[in-house]
Amino acid sequence: MELDRTDIAILRALQADGRQSNLALAEKVNLSPSPCLRRVRQLEEAGVIRGYTALVDPKAYGLPLTLYVRISLERHARDVVETFEQAIEKLEEVVECHLLTGGADYLLRVVVADLEDYQRFMSEEIHVIPGVASIDTSFALKTVKSSRVYKKP
């Protein structure tokens, strides 16, 4: 699906507020409600809009510690990669996992309750995954910017 300016406007408006009514969305993107709803449904059916979710404050939820974990694998054989990725998919503490270029193979964003929870997570969940060669962790001290709205193309 090729996106036009109106599709982009709809997507940006929904990224900023996914709970707004179709009427409010239609006003923001200068469409009448029926064509606006039709476009939203097309974007959903095409998989451009993958779903809707609530953005929850991790501190209020009881998970105030955010860590970025860089992981390198011993080797890049298919079985090692598949085993690692399948293990990571099952871990609720891992809220994002990205395959990288450069020094590390993966970057994980992990949220936990405290240092003890982090230590348990590392020793019981990460260290037991076969093929992990190295782990480097950074703690997020402060979130300077967190946006879900993509820049205009």
Describe the structure.
The chain has 153 residues and is an alpha+beta fold. 39% of the residues lie in helices and 20% in strands. The protein contains six helices and four strands, in the order ααααβαββαβ. It has helices spanning 5-16, 22-28, 33-45, 58-61, 78-89, 115-126, and strands at residues 65-73, 94-99, 106-112, 132-139. Strand 2 and strand 3 form a beta hairpin. Helix 2 (22-28) crosses helix 3. The longest helix has 13 residues, at 33-45. The model has no long low-confidence stretch (mean pLDDT 97).
Query: How many individual β-strands?
Result: 4
Distance between the termini: 15 Å
| N to C succession of SSEs | HHHHEHEEHE
User: Quick one: biggest sheet?
Assistant: 4 strands, antiparallel
Portion of residues within helices: 25-40%
Shape descriptor reads: elongated
Main sheet: which strands, in order across?
A: 2-3-1-4
List keywords for this structure.
6 helices; 39% helix; alpha+beta; 153 residues; four-stranded antiparallel β-sheet; elongated
List the helices and strands and how they pair.
Elements lengths: L4 H12 L5 H7 L4 H13 L12 H4 L3 E9 L4 H12 L4 E6 L6 E7 L2 H12 L5 E8 L14
Antiparallel strand pairs: 1-3, 1-4, 2-3
Helix pairs in contact: 2-3
